[in-house]
Amino acid sequence: MFAAVAVALFVTFALALIRAISGPTVFDRVLSLNVIGTKTILLIAVLGFATDRYDFIDIALVYAVLNLIGTIAVLRYLVGDKERS
Amino acid sequence: MTTADLMLTAILLPLAAALLIALAGRSPNLREAVTLAAAAGLAFTVWQLIAGFDAGTAPTIALAQILPGFTLMLRAEPIGLVFAGVAAGLWGLNSLYSIGYMRAEHAPRQTRFYACFALALSAAMAIAMAGNLATLFVAYEALTLVTYPLVVHWQTEGAIAGARRYLAYLLATSLVPFLGAILWTWSAAGTLDFTAGGILDGKLGDGALTVLLLLFAYGVGKAALMPLHGWLPAAMVAPTPVSALLHAVAVVKAGVFTLLKIAVYIFGIDVIGRGVGDVLIVIAAASVIAASVIAMTRDDLKARLAYSTVAQLAMVTLAVAIGSPLAIAAGILQLVMHAFGKITLFFGAGAIQVATHKKKLSEIAGIGAKLPLLMASFLVGALSVAGLPPLGGMWPKFLLLEAASARDLYLLIGCLGLSTLLTLGYLAPIFITAVFGKPGAEDPHALPHDDHGHGSGHLPLLALIPPVVTALGCLVLFVAAPAILRFVAPAIGLGVLP
Amino acid sequence: MSDLVGLFPYWAVIVLMMTGLYIVIAQGNLVKKLIGLGIFQVSVFVLYIAIGVVDGATPPILSPGFNSYSNPLPSVLILTAIVVGVATLAVGLALAVRIRESFGTIEEEDLLPLTMPELPPDGEARS
Amino acid sequence: MIAQNAAVLVVVLPLLSAPLVALIRNPAIAGAAALVIAALDAVLATLLLCQTLDGTVISYHLGNWAPPIGIEYRIDLLAAAMACLLSYAATLVALFLPVSLQGAVSPGDRPRLFAAFLLCLAGLVGIVVTGDIFNVFVFLEISSLSTYVLIAMGAGTDRRALTAAFDYLILGATGATFFVIGIAFLYVVTGTLNMADLGERMATAPKRAILVGSSFIFVGVALKAAMLPLHRWMPNAYAYAPAAIGTFLAMTATKVAIYMLIRMSDFVFDTPGEIGRVNFAALLPPIGLAMLLAGSVIAVTTKDLRRLLAYSSIANLGLMLVALGLGGVAGIAAALVNLFNHAIIKGGMFATTAAVLHRRGSTRMEALAGLSKDMPVAFGLLVLGGLALIGVPLTAGFVSKLVVIKLAFDQANWLVVGGVLLTSLITVAYIWRIVEAGMLAVPEKPRPRRDLHPAFILPAGLLGAATLGLGIWSEPMLTLASRIAAQMIGTAP
Amino acid sequence: MTQRLLLGAAFYFLWMGLSGHFSPFLLVTSILSVVGVILLLTRLGLVSRDYQPFSLVVALVIYWRWLLVEIVKANIDVIRCVLGLGKPPSPAMGWVHASQKTDLCKTLYANSITLTPGTITVLAEGDQFLIHALHREGLASLQDGEMDRRCTVLDENFRGKVA
Amino acid sequence: MTLPDIFDLARLVVGDVLIGIGGLAALVGALGLVRLPDFYTRAHASGVTDTAGAIGILVGLAVLSPDILTAVKLLIVLIVALFASPASCHALARAAFRSGLRPSLHEDRPPPAVPGE
Ligand code: NA
Ligand code: NA
Question: What positions does the domain NADH:quinone oxidoreductase/Mrp antiporter transmembrane occupy (chain D) (predicted)?
């Protein structure tokens, strides 16, 4: 099952990548990359279970937190940019 | 004092004088007293050295080692002492003249002027007493740098451009061909020490030696060998005492002296004489004739004298290139005689400028009436430079002819004869115009030139005495020449005196 | 084929490296340059991690039931490199912000005329 | 105790005190603290030099882990001498750093600047004393990061400092990344990061990987060394950084890059007698000559004294590379003589320039008018340094050039002989621009005679004296350089 | 202070949950780091009921349970739409009134809207949210106000406790 | 089969089903990302992967966890992910809208620019 889910996630990546490449707007690309980012968290967790390395969850957690911080940073950047101009 | 002490004194005395002059800058009288005292002291020191010189015990002093094998050391030897004697002897006279000239011209920056002058003498002494090429090179560079403020003295646009040219020629030639030749010598011979008989024989082939000699001849830019003579006329923007320094006391003299030393102690006279110097003979002879011809075309007195220097000192190079003891002896004598003759001429030209504000041949018609004594001195100097008896200038020309004929260089003999005619051709008009010319004959279109002083027909005594003294010197040297020859004879292997 | 799969991380490294360098060189926007720099640095992280991998071994975190671990040293090294990379990025972004504040742009072509060495020192230029 | 641990203290002292200095609120106290720490570091470095002078190699195992597993601080004569250069430079600069920041950096920013300064010193010293190549990278980044910050602090007087710092950051980070990629390759084939080990294991390692690895390292170091055509960051960095910082960088930053080339000569280029290595030495003379020429030519056309000096530094780095490329003990020794002498000469000139900037608020050529009148000492020091750069005898610069030319002569490398001699002429041209600007140009308005601020006198004067002293009494420097080189190559001194 | 203690406790349990090691050394250092973080948060002015609404925990849990169900339902809708099984997309956009008074609960409402697939809060201007919906019905059901009402209850709850 | 065995089996089944659903949801969401017509509709699809995908997989894994700590961590991951998702989604949508990107709407009626219209 883990393998199947991992494959599903990889297919998800591929599809998101297609969207990231084809665009057409920059927002589509960011959206796709965001999806890839959040799915990476899931992939790490699944791979950890698949290889019996449950400590991978910690990595997934760190990744999730970084993702959150990154999101907040982007959010602030977008807000700040508007307010400046 | 031992010879070693005397050598150090000769270098340090002007150095200390420069420092004192800088400190005494606020009081012109004190400053100039220091200059004169130092000049007298230096002349005395060098005289002591000459009088006490003994080839057997001539000591060397090691000063510093810059690289292993590239050491700074001093050594007294006859040719150097002759050069030192000329420079030291003329410094005092030149200083006296400077005082008269600079005060009359109300020149600015006189402290810098006297200090740099003293520094130049210190460097000249170091060149004279250099014990090896390394030391000579170091002092040679120092001389270039300390004379730069002198050349740029007026700091007008013209002065800046001229000084730039002066520096460019001298540094460029010394930093590339000269340093290159020194390093080549070092690489080939393993030493840079001035050694009797030279150090290069057998170390390099004759072809390489010819190239090396040319590198030296052009590397020593101070020797003003054509076509690298351009700095000398350019440096004419300097005050006249500086021109005297450049032409007669230290700078060009240092150049040809360097060539003499290199010929005698690095190559060896015989080595050059066996054909290594032949290319240089042609270049030097061409330089003599070409510079003389150019001198004839110059209206500006100092420019005329400058080209005269190029021609006259190319004869020293010629002597070096001929490469026989007799020729070298002629070169040494030419170094001395030209110094006295040319300084007389410069003093004269400067005095004319101070007294009448005239700088050009076309302007000086008839001024001789006001300056009889000066013009008499000028005539003596001119005849000596041309090489006519009974003046000192005769000897080197005569010896050079002998040397040329000893090597069967008949074309060269012709050249030398022509050169004497040309010399008269460019010097005589000055005297003739000044003394016999009619004042009205001067060019009505001559533009008023910028003056730096306010002199009017009056010639300060201090500007008159020195040329008279040096003119007398030319007479005395006619008699004293054999003594000089005897002094240097052992060093250059000159056997039977003529 | 197995070679291709086995070398996959290295291909990724090369692609990332070239991409990053290309962005650093070709992009005129300072922030984009920094992003390119980040990608370039990430390629090195991947390279180091790939170096440390031992076939059939587990990541170098001690855990009961495993004896074969990948080489931990590259990972440890790259931890330092990541910190350095983040610090560089932070300084770079801070500089970009300051540049935007003083020049009003972070586009290289707009900055170029404002930063010519011939210009008189600041202030006079801003008028 | 201190003597034994000097090897590590020399890095740790500035590294750990930097954050503390940043916390000091009073800029004057922070500046004094930075000076004291730099001076203490200089004492430690001197201790190391004394210990290594007889050929001893100090090996300090960090955390008592033996190499090659643990990190080794390995201090031979080269490392000790470099540490001395770096810490002395820092001490001299710290003497006038606070004064030169007046009006340039706001008092609130100064403590942080001092901290970055110490951090930079720590990074540079770290590069020098560590025996672990990855550690070199880490220290390189520490020094680089603080350098970016330091350069950016020049924005108080010229906003172009920001773009200068940014450009340097991009290039520096790219260079460092290249360096670390190179390390990866070497590590893969040798399994070690210890540079001594690396040298030994290199002989049996696959040649192709070594080639790739050392190429990356070479490019990385080349960026740091401002090697043509990767030199572009340097003039701006030196010209727009706070003047005192420019002085420090001129004395240290690129010198450390040259140090890295020398240190890595075992695996970055061929050492004599060893076959099969990658021969980067052959690249150095052409690159060096190009730098010599390009740096000098551009220096002639620049309108700002600091820029001029920066381009001149490129030329001088070229000379060091040329020397290094000539190879062998003599080549390394010649490069080292150039490295130390140039640090002293350029340091003196930059320090004097900082003093001029402090009085005049500008280092543009036209701002130098009347310098010989109202700042005669400063002018004299500038001329002295300039003469040394030309290579006038009795200055350290002459010795530097002479060793290179003599070596090239002995190897009959006429290209180098001609190139080095000819570029002296271009040097004359740009140095004479300074002389004419300071001595002959007429100032717009006469200024009262106010020479160097006292804070500059000791550092600028000392460096000037050394410029002269090492030109006359060059033996200590030559001996040191040849001993270091002999130790590097492994022949008896 | 209570706020800080509660926050500290929360951090401490988070630490322990993540660490999984209970040696005395780690337990003590964890206290130190928790204290450090709280000090930093205090200095940043981030310790307040607005940021850590402990009083709402119970109410939030109830709300989240309801929200989870909504999310599942919404997901099914969107998945059917993507797979072409349900009604085709009929994108709509419109303003929705948010009746909460506090920023906290307005954020909660806006985020809840976005979190349920099929609706996104595009703009939040005062008490009006601009919503994009995949289906007209999604927008309509938001405008009906079930979610708004539940959030308002939480809001009143929160305000009551604060006051 | 003892009770714990049955419990374990149930755990296995529930967990596998949950992560299966999560995987499928992620897949479908990504499919939507490709298939749906404009940015705003695609954002809904990304919401699917962010919620259903994450909930399914992480809760499923939590059910399958060998120990309670791992499960707790997974739930923390889930909470963090669920906090991040709407924030980023909203930020993107707002940035898109403000920069002038308009959704293509079913009814040919432009979205009201002012609230309450
Ligand atoms: Na990075
Ligand atoms: Na949504």
Answer: 132-427
Helix H, strand E, coil C: the string for D244-299 is HHHHHHHHHHHHHHHHHHHHCHHHHCCCCCCCCCCCCHHHHHHHHHHHHHHHHHHH
DSSP string over chain C? -HHHHHTHHHHHHHHHHHHHHHHHHH--BHHHHHHHHHHHHHHHHHHHHHHH--TTPBPSS--TT---B--HHHHHHHHHHHHHHHHHHHHHHHHHHHHHHHHS--BHHHHHHHT-TTSPSTTTTT-
Residues of A in contact with C58 (CB under 8 A): 51, 53
Distance (Å) from CA D365 to ligand 1 centroid? 41
Query: At E161, is the pLDDT very low, low, confident or very high (cuts 50, 70, 90)?
Result: low
Q: Is E39 on the interface with F (CB under 8 A)?
A: no
Q: Which residues are paired to E121 by β-bridges?
A: E131
Q: Where are the domains of chain D?
A: 283-493
Residue C32: give the domain boundaries: 2-55+68-114
Distance from CA of A55 to the nearest CA of C (A): 8
Per-window interface: B 297-316 vs D, CB < 8 A = none
pLDDT tens profile D282-332 = 788 889 999 999 999 999 999 899 999 999 999 999 999 999 888 888 999
- Alpha-carbon span B123 to B129, nearest angstrom: 10
Ligand 2 centre distance from Cα of residue A84 (Å): 29
Nearest-neighbour CA in chain C from D120: distance (Å): 14
Interface membership of A69 toward F (CB under 8 Å): no
Q: Which listed ligand is nearest to C36 at the C-alpha? A: 1
Judging contacts by C-beta atoms under 8 Å, the chain E residues touching residue F73 are: 17-18
CB contact under 8 A, D166 and C30: yes
Residue E114 CA to ligand 2 center (angstroms) comes to 4
* Residue type at D175 in one-letter notation: G
Most D CBs within 10 A among B132, B143, B165, B187, hence the mutation to make, goes to B187
pLDDT along chain B (498 residues), means of 10: 84 89 83 86 87 78 86 88 87 80 78 87 91 91 89 85 87 89 89 86 85 89 81 80 77 88 87 83 89 85 83 88 86 87 83 76 74 80 81 80 81 84 81 74 46 52 78 82 79 68
Domain presence at residue C89 = yes
Domain residue spans of chain F: 10-98
Q: Of B26-30, D190-194, F41-45, F75-79, which range is least confident?
A: B26-30
- Total number of domains in chain C: 1
Nearest chain B CA: its distance from D379 CA (Å): 14
Q: For residue C79, tell me if it sits in a domain.
A: yes
> Per the domain annotation, does C40 fall within a domain?
yes
Task: Say whether pLDDT at A82 is over 60.
Answer: no
List the 129-148 stretch of E: residues with Cβ below 8 A of F: 130, 132, 134, 136
D226 to B323, D183, D297: CA distances (angstroms): 52, 20, 16
Provide the CATH number for the domain around residue C104: 1.10.287.3510
Domain spans in chain B, listed from the N-terminal domain onward: 1-263, 277-498
Determine the distance in angstroms separating the CA of F116 from the nearest CA of chain A, rounded to an integer: 24
The pLDDT tens digits for B322-381 are: 888 888 888 888 888 888 888 888 888 877 777 777 777 777 777 777 777 778 888 888
- Cα–Cα distance measured from residue B162 to residue B167, given in angstroms and rounded to the nearest whole number: 9
Cβ–Cβ below 8 Å for D149 and C115: no
DSSP state of B300: B
Helix, strand or coil, per DSSP, at residue B354: helix
Catalogue all structural domains in chain E, each as residue range(s) with its CATH number. 2-44 (no CATH), 54-160 (3.30.1370)
Task: Note whether D263 and D132 are within 8 A (CB).
Answer: no
Q: Report yes or no on chains A and F touching (3+ CB pairs under 8 A).
A: yes
